[in-house]
Specification:
64% helix, 132 residues, globular
């Protein structure tokens, strides 16, 4: 598992822990569709841990289901995950945000092709002007 994949898998796990602190997921009695959603989230994390072929496609489906089914919780869905899973997820990102992630990927590709160490999390935070 490379650093880029590891970063996104950890982000996925952190997002799960954040999501379960919000309604309807923090209630004692979950509706069947909410249980199913959490099950699909856990399944996605497992696919990421195993890095199976279905991981990216399942991630796309999951993110789209999140936006459509829990739009009130979309602000806690990290933009990084929309970019990482890409495909139809990109429809939920503005063009300027897509350009930022493209530029970040270009920096990563340049470093990898030159065999230069690239600390994705650190460079990402600096590039996107985020504080740690």
């Amino acid at each position: 598992m490379n650093q880029y994949h590891f970063f996104h898998l950890e982000l996925l796990k952190q997002t799960y822990n954040l999501l379960i602190s919000y309604p309807p997921f923090n209630s004692e009695e979950l509706m069947p569709q909410d249980e199913e959603f959490l099950d699909s989230f856990n399944n996605l994390i497992q696919l990421g841990d195993e890095y199976t072929q279905d991981y990216i496609e399942s991630g796309q489906t999951f993110c789209i289901n999140w936006v459509r089914g829990y739009s009130q919780l979309t602000p806690i869905l990290p933009r990084d995950l929309l970019w990482f899973f890409s495909g139809d997820c990109l429809h939920y990102m503005p063009d300027e945000e897509i350009m930022q992630f493209q530029q970040l990927d270009e920096l990563r590709y340049e470093a990898e092709s030159s065999a230069i160490e690239f600390d994705y999390a650190k460079i990402r935070n600096e590039f996107l002007k985020l504080t740690v």
